Amino acid sequence: MAGIWVFAESREHTRELLGAGRELADRMGTTLGVFAQGASASKEYIACGADEVFVLPVLGEDEPLEACVPVLADAVSAGDPDVIFIGATARGKTIAARLASRLKTGLCSCCSGFVYDEGDKLLRMERMVYGGAGIQTVVCETRPQMATIAPRTFAPAPEQEGRSGKVSELPVVPESGVKVLDRLPRQRGAVDVTRAKAIVCVGRGVEKAEDITLARDLADVLGAEVACSRPIAEELQWLPEDVYLGISGKRVKPELYVGVGVSGQIQHVTGIRDSRVIFAINRDENAPIFEAADFGIVGDLYQVVPKLIDEFKAALKA
Ligand SMILES: Cc1cc2nc3c(=O)[nH]c(=O)nc-3n(C[C@H](O)[C@H](O)[C@H](O)COP(=O)(O)OP(=O)(O)OC[C@H]3O[C@@H](n4cnc5c(N)ncnc54)[C@H](O)[C@@H]3O)c2cc1C
Fold first, then answer.
1. How far apart are CA 70 and CA 82, in angstroms?
2. How many angstroms is it from 25 CA to the middle of ligand 1?
3. For the chain, what is the mean pLDDT?
4. Are the C-beta atoms of 128 and 135 separated by less than 8 Å?
5. The domain spanning residue 291 has which CATH number?
C-alpha cells in the first residue's frame, strides 16, 4: 500500500489537491498520483508534483462523470494507494461516496485540513460541523483513507521545471446506464464571485429588492462584484444562488469584502473570513459581523452607503 492519489473535476481544483497531496507524500515518503480527464493536462500535473498520471478517457457529452467510478475503483484496487483526495464539488462528492462504498472504506466529507500521525500512520482529518460552529476530527482506519476537499481549501501547486513522471492510460469507461434526455440552462449570476478582487455583500438589512441598486452603486465605485447572504438568494431570491457566500455557499478570499446589512452569523463568516480586509456596515453595534471585521461603521445603511459612494467618488476625482 503506497501513494497519495487525487482527482478533481477542474484543472485548478486538481492543482490544489496536488499541492496538498505533494506535501503529504513527501512527509509520508511516498508517491503522488493524479487522475486526469484526457491526456492534455498530464505535463502540467507532473510539473505540479504528480509522479504518475492516470488518464481517463474523455467522456461523451451525454455521459456523466460518475460513469468513471468503476474504472477508478479498478485502478485503486490495482494500485493500492494509502490516501485518496477527491474534489468536493457536487459531482466529486457523488464519485467519492460511490468509490468509498465500492472500496469498503471510510470517507471524510469536506475535509478542511489534516495532520499526519507518524506513529499510527493515519491522517487526522478535520471537517466543520454544526454550520461551522465546531470542528470534527475524522480518522479513517480502513484503507485507502479517503477525503473530499472543497475548492480553495489549499493553495494550487506551482509548476516546477525538470520534473518527470509516468503517464498510464486507463481503460474505456463502461456505459453508465444513465441517459440524458434534456439539458436546461441553470440560472447563473453573470460573474464568478470566487474570482472577485473586491465584493460588496448584501444582507437582509436591505429592505427591498430594488435597494440592491445601492450596493451595486457602491460596488461600481470600488470595482467590486455584488454578492449576498443566503437568505437574500434562497428565501427572497433577489440574487442568484451562485453569489451567496458562506459555508453552504461560495467561499471567497477577496482583497476587500464589504458587508452591507449582514449580521455575520458563523455560517456566513466561514465563507468570507479569509478576505484580506473585512469592512461591515450594520446599524446594530452588537452584530457579530463586527467581531470578524477589520473596519466597521455602525449606522443605517440607507444613510451610510450613499455617503460612502460620494466620498469614494470625490477621493477618486482628487
Ligand atoms: C446549516 C446552515 C447553513 C447556512 N449556510 C449559510 C451560508 O452559507 N451563508 C449565509 O449567508 N447564511 C447561511 N446560513 C444562514 C445564517 O445562519 C444566517 O441566517 C444568515 O447568514 C443571515 O443573513 P443576513 O445576515 O443577511 O440576515 P440577518 O441575520 O437577518 O441580519 C440582517 C442584519 O442587517 C442589519 N440591519 C437591518 N437593517 C439595517 C439597516 N437599515 N442598516 C444597517 N444594518 C441593518 C441587522 O442589524 C442585522 O444584523 C446557514 C444556516 C444554517 C442553519
1. 19
2. 41
3. 93
4. yes
5. 3.40.50.1220
Residue nearest to atom 29 of ligand 1 (CA): 263
Co-location of 18 and 158 in the same domain? yes
Centre of ligand 1 to C-alpha 291, Å, is 14
- What does pLDDT average to in each consecutive run of 10 residues of the chain (318 residues)? 91 97 96 95 97 91 86 96 95 96 96 94 92 88 96 93 95 79 70 92 97 96 96 94 92 96 95 95 98 97 97 88
The preferred substitution site among 248, 267, 273 for testing ligand 1, maximizing ligand atoms within 8 Å of CB, is: 267
Q: Look at the alpha carbons of 58, 15, 246, 94 in this order and tell me if their dihedral is positive or negative.
A: positive
User: Count of alpha carbons within 13 Å of 118, Cβ hemisphere only?
Assistant: 4
* Per-residue pLDDT at 187: 59
Percentage of the chain beyond pLDDT 70 is: 98
301 pocket-lining for ligand 1 (C-beta < 6 Å): yes
Report the number of distinct structural domains present in the chain: 2
For residue 191, the CA-to-ligand 1 centroid distance in Å is 22
> Are 25 and 165 in the same domain?
yes
- The pTM of the full predicted model, rounded to 2 decimals, is 0.70
Domain boundary among 169, 185, 219: 169
Range of the domain at 265: 193-317
Distance separating alpha carbons of residues 81 and 1, to the nearest angstrom: 6
